[in-house]
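Illustration 12: ubiquitinyl hydrolase 1.
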Amino acid sequence: MDAVSRNLDQGNMESDDREGAVADLKTQLGEMQIGGGGEMLIDNYDVVDEKQEAAIITPDDSVEEADPLANDFEAMKARIQTPTPDLEIETETEHTWTIENWRALSKKERGPVFECGGHPWRILLFPFGNNVDHASLYLEQGREEEEKAPEGWYACVQFTLVMWNKNDPSIYLHHSAQHRFNAEESDWGFTRFGDLRKLFMASWEDKGRPMIENESVNITAYVRIYKDPTGVLWHNFINYDSKKETGMVGLKNQGATCYLNSLLQSLYFTNAFRKAIYQIPTDHEVDRRNSAWALQRLFYLLQTDKDAVSTQELTVSFGWETKQIFEQQDVQELSRILMERMEKRMKGTEAENALANMFVGKMKTYISCINVDYESSRIEDFWDVQLNVSGNKCLDDSFKDYIQVETMDGENKYFAEGHGLQDARKGVIFESFPQVLHLQLKRFEYDIHRDAMMKVNDRYEFPEIWDASPYLSESADKSEPYIYQLHGVLVHSGDFNAGHYYAFLKPTADGHFYRFDDDRVTRATLKEALDDNFGGDYANLTNGNTGVRNPYTRTMSTKRSMSAYMLVYIRQSRQKDILLDVAEADTPTHLSRRLNEERAEKERIRKEQQEAHLYLPVDVIDDEGFTAYEGFDLTSTIWDLDPAIPSNPKRYRVLRSQSVDDFLKTLASERNTPPEHFRFWVMVNRQNKTVRPDQPITEGSLTMEGAFNKHGSREKSFRLWLEKADTFENGRAIWPEFAPQASSTAPILIFLKYFDVDLQRLLGVGHIYLKKSSKVSDLVPLIANTMGWSAQSSSRSNLSSKGSESTLVSPSRSVQSNASSENILPPSNRSPSSDKSSNTLIGDIPVPLLALYEEIKHSMIEPMKPKSTLAQAEIQDGDIVCFQKAISDRETSALLSSGRYSDARDFYDYLLNRVSVSFSPKNVTDIDKEVFSLVLSRKTTYDQLAAKVADHLHVSASHIRFATIHSTTQRPKQTVKPAKDTDLGYILRPHFGGFNNSNQRDDALVYEVLEMSVKELESKKNLKVTLLSEGITKEETFDILVPKTGTINDLLRGLQKKAGLPDAVVERMRILEVSQSKIHKELMDQTSVVPIQEFATLYAEVIPEDEENAQDGEKAIYAFHFDKEPSRPHGVPFKFVLKPLERFEDTKERLKTRTGIKGKQFEKIRFCLVQRSKFSIAITLENDDILYDKAINPDDFLGLDHVNKNRAGGVKGDSIFIR
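Figure caption equivalent — predicted structure in token form:
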């Protein structure tokens, strides 16, 4: 059956048309076959839209009891309207409406009003169908249209509508539904309640009479109103406001961060934790990479915002990228890492040790001898407790399992110092529990039968109040009760591969539980927080259902897919300390100030976006910015708008209707200068990808939009250069006349840059004007004038005036010059490093010999010929001329030897390849090593790179080694090998394997100061050796440097030095080379290390006594571990001695000692004989077998079949991290 929507439009259909439509339908109903085969259509003015999400409760046809009569209201209600489990009935009633003269009814009829729960109700009937060929029947609230429902009114109603023959109450039709009625959804029911043809048929379901008999029928409404303990019963959550309904807000899900959201909400409502986070000083560290600031910000927004808060700032501070955002991670691991980061930030502050005092308990691991007074124990801190769910029914069962005592006896006796081998008890006991106890329930485990990680959905109960004292040691301080109150239940719904996380939290000690499901917060009952998350089988499955569909896996299951995976308990005696109020005064003042600034900025941006069509973005540069700029063009090639950099353009938001003159007045006012002293030049994009001034704007009356349309490029902003005059006449600025470029007398606007050889800087110095017919050499006196290179008049005579006389035009005055081009020192004639005199005279002005270059584009810096005219040199408005002083060969050599530049072209090349590289120590424990940055050229060679870093660190360059950095984990990635043809650009961005190097940072390296030179290091081989002790159960890996031509004995001596082993132990050691978890060969002391690859797996162990003291007739066999199939080896292989006539039952006892594997773990191992000739077959060994006789061939192996616990259990890649 279809549901109906809430809206019933009154419509504007003409009465004649309506009566005609109804009359036609009545005529059809009077025929033998109603509808005449045609489709019944009703005008749309009164259509009630259908809804698919209505909850329809179908009758259970399997009940064999006698059907009640429709006029037996109590019996009918008991049969057709079963109460909803776990809901409390507020009130209920039934009401019958008798309908007469069915064919005379109008299109829509409403029955009499009746009362239930203090509110009016009535039945709504569409006798001829609501746009369908069925009678349509609904229940609606009975207020008149002009009478409004009370604000916030709603009712949770379970109802059944029954149509029945008033002459024969055994003939009836009914449908049931449940709905949350409110002012917006005031009606609900069934568009296709009953087929009109069938309702009027002579015999209803072989009863011998029709449903609607003699144009009359009864309709009974059974209405039951339920109490709504949470306020969201059957809520559709359209326009739901968490803040309004609960006073709290949720967190937005970025993709797969629901697990993070549930943890963050739990920590937020641990108020003492929130207060401690606020106490971390971050007022001078407001940075997107600062996780403490980001967490403070998130908590404050949860505290003050009206809408759900984004976690994006926090995950950015963690260093997470898209990959981490869309991967569900382990909550326990995330919690521990987050605690570690925050605890580190709290050191030295008033919050120091706050987290440890709150979350850390103590447990004791012990081995206690039974027959002598001896105990070995170790007390450790714990932040949370991991509890087994599988095999346990409740929380107490898990704790009993956790502290279970293992008896060490027989072959497994404990060696007690001073007492020898003794029977002992081994176990764990708690010395104290923290104020806030985090319990991690192991809902995910490896299933050996399915060979996969699976979720444990078994029923597992936990109480609201829990006593932890039974699990404390006898010596523990119990002066204060260890009674805990449940504060939070973090839930996972789904299975291992797909699911969703949410949390039930109790923000106050005496308050209610609330469900925090990403951005939605709702009130919850105690049953929803506890019982519904125990897991286990579904109860009360109805209508023959065999299970419930999991919304994430789309499979049917009889077990609940939602279950608790983490519990948060708070010690009752400390609840006031943990759940204390966090007031506005507890939040850092800079936090609210910064967030208010962010909100104001967001509001400004929102307003700007709304009004964007009225404004034009205008970017302005001037001479002040140009003279502060060091780089290509007149300003940043990307037109960077960062206002903190004085050389960057300034962005203005200008009304499109504002005139150019008015905007000019605004800029003049900022500079406290009359507007007549300025004019605008339009900046254009040239074909060589530079941006230069093209022409001045002379029509000040133009609107900014008009000027942009006339002169602007296709850029989004209008780019302008603001020129300031320095020549005036009667207070008016005198501008050089602007003439077509074809004219030889046209003044050309030229920008000047100066390469200062001494300071190694390239800066703008201003602009000049020069006629196109002037020669390049005529630039020199103007440069001298601009640079202020003037002195006392020289007694030397003026230079020869053979050069053609030229008129020089500048913004300030006309200058006549008799300069001879022969006295200029351009690169085309002589090198800037000539040893000749570095000065000449132009008139009375001593001017340094100069080299001139034209900056055509970033990669094209060309020398200029002094005898060429500007026209011949193709100089035009906006071109840039760079000049430098000439220097001697001796000065050039000195500069080059110090790694500096003597030629402007080389410095331009440096700028083109300039990059800022961050250097950090390789080992994060090297707190004495600094993190620093250097500005370098991508063409810097490896030797030059090492020299610059060594100079900064004051160490030898030969002892520095570099490595690249992984862009995601920020960890060292690959060691950089020194080579003469390797430059910095290649190191940061290798040309090969673009895919493999896409995750490498191109702006940072790690460095390591070695004890030996890199060259000496290259003469050695680095081998990883794993030292085995306690059988094969304890492993410790070392990196050992040995000479490339060394021997295994050198390797052992290196291991001795690294591990601090005595000589007596090393003399009994051997090295095993392992391949695919099986012994490949034993390496003798004098074996050369040359054929051993650096990635080879090597194990070092002390030769066991039974092997050293092997008797005649005994032999050895290699053993390895595998998981189900011999082709799936894992673990540490070993060598084992076989004894003649020894039953395998006794052999296993020696295997316990050899491997160090004991207890239940050893009992789970299946021992097999694996023959190389039949490697895929593993022959199980029984206790009575004699392995010595079965292992005939020297290539036979002893196989240990057991689960590989080190195998990756899921789909995760890199482990989770927080930067």
